[in-house]
Design a protein that fits this description.
Helix content: 25-40%
CATH topology of the largest domain: Spore Coat Polysaccharide Biosynthesis Protein SpsA, Chain A
Number of strands: 14
CATH class of the largest domain: Alpha Beta
Shape: globular
Distance between the termini: 27 Å
Order of helices and strands: HHEEHEHEHHEEHEHHEHHHEEEEHEEHHH
Strand order of the largest sheet: 1-4-3-2-5-8-7-9
Length: about 400
């Protein structure tokens, strides 16, 4: 089809030239035709790379600013998260996407940029975070093997994006199943940030070491709604780095979750707790199939029902309360199972990832992975992981046979 179009273009240009057409219209057509024939390919996205905080300005007058943090190793999984965000966006809204870049290849930036080709309501730009990390590398320390220095990128958001009032931050190991603009629209009611509770760490008691008697307010930093202006006014970046330095000197390695603990301790009492559907850990996400139905277009589709907690988990919560002699009741203890048609954001938190092994609700992640431009890379990496693990990949084996 493209060759036919190219041949037709050549013929029209040649004929117009012979007839001596000298109008502006034909001159423009002649030049455009030459460019099309010489390139012979679709125009690719030129990655917008920003190095100065002065240039980190909004792309739209009323856009939805979303920030990701990513290094070179995590790019394929960032692509999957972006795919889910784009697919569930609203054409009536504009989305201003930033990637805090810790070493992403130029080639990969172009691939990510091409994901929004033809979408005028999307912008994707990359900000070089490396100078900020290099400047503070002596203060940064990692306590968990599956976490990289990229986890600290979010701490520098107030410093970098001074031209913004409010932003959404997302980890790259998430799937967005709803319009992220709905999260952005939540009123923070004067609080520094909004976040969902971290159920596993509240339940295990790890949150108590950070939030004390207010452990039921301990939140996950994987999905954040940030009042960037108030964070700047309250010096959250500097306070976080200073607190981290003290923790390192005290050798407080145990039960420490890097930037998440820092933000919880510093922002305690100034956080709006949002519905956990915006950051539901896949390990707490129980999926049940309930047959087929038809959507508005009459197309058959599977109905999925997600249970945040099962009765067995609730019983375990009651036992935990009794054993720990808790006087206050954390938000999820004893509560009836909450049902979602589908969680707004599924977070594959922890060391177990869907691109490494079979995990709960991993099939949803793979549905978006198949639609991402990094799918073949993800498959190849998965093969290597499974070879190292030396046991069969139950979930991915069928996919490998298709390649």
């Amino acid at each position: 089809m493209r060759e036919d179009m190219r041949s037709e273009m050549k013929e029209r240009i040649f004929v117009s030239f012979l007839k001596g057409k000298k109008t502006v219209l034909w001159a423009a057509l002649f030049l455009l035709g030459l460019l099309y024939i010489c390139i012979g390919n679709e125009v690719s996205f030129k990655a917008a790379f920003v190095e100065s905080v002065e240039d980190a300005k909004p792309a739209f007058d009323a856009g939805v600013p979303v920030v990701f943090g990513c290094d070179g190793d995590y790019v394929p999984y960032l692509g999957v998260s972006l795919r889910s965000l784009i697919d569930n966006s609203d054409m009536r809204r504009s989305y201003d996407i930033w990637v805090l870049d810790g070493g992403i290849r130029e080639k990969d930036k172009k691939i990510i940029g091409n994901m929004i080709k033809g979408r005028k309501n999307f912008s994707i730009r990359f900000f070089d975070i490396k100078p900020f990390i290099s400047e503070n590398e002596k203060k940064l320390y990692l306590f968990h093997k599956h976490i990289s220095a990229a986890t600290y990128y979010r701490l520098f958001i107030p410093r970098i994006f001074s031209a913004y009032r409010k932003m959404v931050y997302l980890d790259s190991d998430i799937i967005v199943n709803a319009d992220i603009a709905k999260l952005y629209d939540i009123n923070l009611e004067g609080r520094i940030l909004g976040a969902a509770r971290d159920i596993p760490n509240i339940r295990s008691g790890a949150a108590r070491s950070v939030n004390g008697n207010r452990q039921n307010e301990y939140f996950s930093a994987g999905v954040l709604l940030l009042d960037v202006k108030r964070m700047r006014e309250n010096d959250i970046t500097d306070k976080s780095l200073q607190l981290l330095s003290r923790k390192i000197k005290e050798k407080r390695r145990r039960e420490f979750y890097e930037d998440q603990d820092l933000l919880n301790e510093i922002c305690l009492g100034n956080v709006k707790i949002i519905d956990e559907k915006w950051n539901l850990f896949n390990r707490y996400c129980y999926e049940e199939r309930s047959g087929e139905t038809k959507n508005a277009a009459g197309k058959k589709m599977q109905v999925r029902v997600f249970f945040e907690k099962t009765q067995a988990n609730i019983a375990a919560d009651f036992r935990h309360m009794k054993e720990k002699k808790l006087t206050s009741t954390p938000f999820f203890f004893g509560r009836r199972s909450k049902v979602y048609d589908i969680p707004a954001v599924i977070h594959y938190a922890g060391a177990k990832k869907p691109w490494k092994e079979e995990v709960r609700c991993g099939n949803i992640w793979w549905e978006y992975a198949e639609k991402s431009p990094f799918y073949s890379d993800i498959i190849e990496k998965y093969k290597k992981v499974r070879e190292i693990a030396s046991h069969p990949g139950l979930f991915i084996d069928n996919r490998l046979k298709l390649k």
